[in-house]
Amino acid sequence: MTLLVIDLGSSSVRTLLFDDGARLIEGAICSRKHDFETDHDGKAEAQADHLRALTEACLDDILTHPAAESVRAVGLASFAGNWLGVDAEGRACTPVLTYADTRGRSAITDLTRRLGGRLDAYHQATGCFIHPAYFPAQYAFMKEADSQSLRGMQRISDVGGYFYRQWFGRESPISYSLASWSGLLGTESTRWCFDFIRQLLGDDLLERLPDLGDFDACQVGLTDAYAGRWPQLRAVPFFLALGDGAVANLGSGAVDARHIALTIGTTSALRVVTRRATLPDGLWRYLVCQGMPLVGGATSEGGNVFQWAVEELGLDTASLNAHLSEARPDQHRLTVLPLIAGERSPGWQSDASGTIHGIRRSTSKLDIMQAQLEAVAIRLSMIFDQLKSEGSTVIAGGGALGSSPAWAQMIADAFNAPIQLLAEAEITARGVALLLRNRLDGTPLDADPPRISRVLRPNTEHVPIYETARARQIDLYQRLYG
Q1: How would you classify the pairing of strands 259-264 and 393-397?
Q2: How far, in Å, CA of 459 to CA of 324, rounded?
Q3: Above 80 in pLDDT, residue 400?
Q4: Which long-range contacts (CB under 8 A, 24 or more apart) does 217-222 make?
Q5: What percent of the chain has pLDDT over 70?
Q6: How many CB atoms lie within 10 A of CB 390?
């Protein structure tokens, strides 16, 4: 029997087939690339029907694989922090707003004022912040900038729920996992926080909220058109969409409080499955599923910094990796805030941007690149210090780390902790497959640990250098943002 996983990421859509051991079947992966629509004002959105067309094309392709004749269940992971409005006929009436959209910064002052002295209470209840990455600021911006689109909106949906509305011909709930990224859900109660919603956005939003459910509130019974297109899936259960970061934890083997998952893709995140009575300042709480809280921090910088620097500085990765493997840390003496896509953890400054301080005539392109990557490692170390406990194990994965082996060593040195590098290439999709198998058969999530390629240990000579560079970065940040 086979498990089919749809992985809707920030830069591509993929469909993958896994066997009952949650192992990727050889040759069973199809993909289509996409990009968010961006501009200089901070827009980062997508068109729901374009994403759906790409996803459906990937499903068409994967269902030609011989293993697709015995699909047992379908799971879906999507980039978390997404929403759109749908009208009475279930059609998209707004773009898909994403976690990367920063235009809601214009609403932060007013939303903060509306909360009054309840900022910490809001953070503890929802696990989120008043920040452009979350729904309240984005919705407030849309009301101001595009009220016409919102006027026809009957329901708010996540992008996975929108797909299901088209495929099954009816509304589906939003999973606790995706809802926990909105800033509207009580992550302990698993209910919408009606009092905060009223206080921040008014009563008119309440009737537009989707129903809630755990990810195993399956949708079954494709419409005739889609059943004809995908006959193998006619009676197969489709599990509700999960946040990609949450299931990446499971795919990394970080299924309990002893393991911290580090993922560096387009962006970066450090997360641990744990229950904490009080949520530390600067960290969020999301849900993998009901009863499985996820505490961590995510930065808006990661592989996008590497890609930006390579493209804009005109570097080739071969010369870059050769330089980084021999360079001494902080030899450039640059101080960098790598906030080219704004800031989330740990400071949550809504107006933050990238900064390079200390450029001299002797500064080279390779110096700037090295400083950017070290700066990402340093910022991640601040989150790590809030999550770590005695005996914690860091498991690292994500496509961006594979682009620069030296980058992983930088992170081990900045953390002053060993880093286990994953040999698994598809940790998000693997996490979905593990969770599907757990719900279908009761197989423990840690029954099949991931493969580890190697363990990087910190270089004791480099650790104090990173500590000094971190102090400079903190000082620059405070000078700019307080």
Answers
A1: parallel
A2: 15
A3: no
A4: 217/172, 217/173, 217/175, 218/73, 219/164, 219/167, 219/168, 219/172, 220/168, 221/168, 222/167, 222/168
A5: 100
A6: 4
CB 408 within 8 A of CB 380: no
Of the candidates 456, 450, 453, 368, the residue with the CA atom closest to the CA atom of residue 407: 456
Amino acid in position 76: L
Contact of 158 with 78, CB cutoff 8 Å: yes
Q: If you search the block for the tokens 């194990």, which residue do you land on?
A: 393
Whether the bond into 405 is cis, omega within 30 of 0: no
441: tokens are 């058969």
pLDDT digits (tens, 9 = 90+) for 237-288: 999 999 998 999 999 999 999 999 998 888 899 999 999 889 998 999 999 9
Structure-token pair, residue 446: 């840690």
- Give the pLDDT confidence of 9-45 residue by residue, as tens digits: 988 999 999 998 999 999 999 999 999 999 989 899 9
Strand partners, 292: 289
DSSP symbols for 324-360: HHHPPTTTT--EEE--BTB--TTT--TT---EEE---
CA distance 71 to 74: 8
Find all residues with CB under 8 Å of 449, minimum gap 6, and list them.
253
Check if the beta carbon of residue 126 is closer than 8 Å to that of residue 184: yes
Q: What confidence score (pLDDT) does residue 57 get?
A: 98
Measured CA to CA, the distance from residue 259 to residue 419 in angstroms comes to 11
Q: Cα separations (Å) of 102 from 83, 98, 308?
A: 14, 9, 18
* Number of residues in the chain: 482
Residue 260 one-letter amino acid: I
Contact 296, 284 (CB under 8 A): yes
Instruction: State which H helix or E strand residue 60 sits in.
Output: helix 48-62
The confidence score (pLDDT) of residue 241 equals 98
174-175 and 292-299 as β-strands: parallel, antiparallel, unpaired? unpaired
Q: Are strands 2-8 and 71-78 parallel, antiparallel or unpaired?
A: parallel
- 437 has pLDDT over 90: yes
Single-letter amino acid code for the residue at 307: Q
Q: How far apart (Å, rounded) are the C-alpha atoms in residues 50 and 33? A: 11
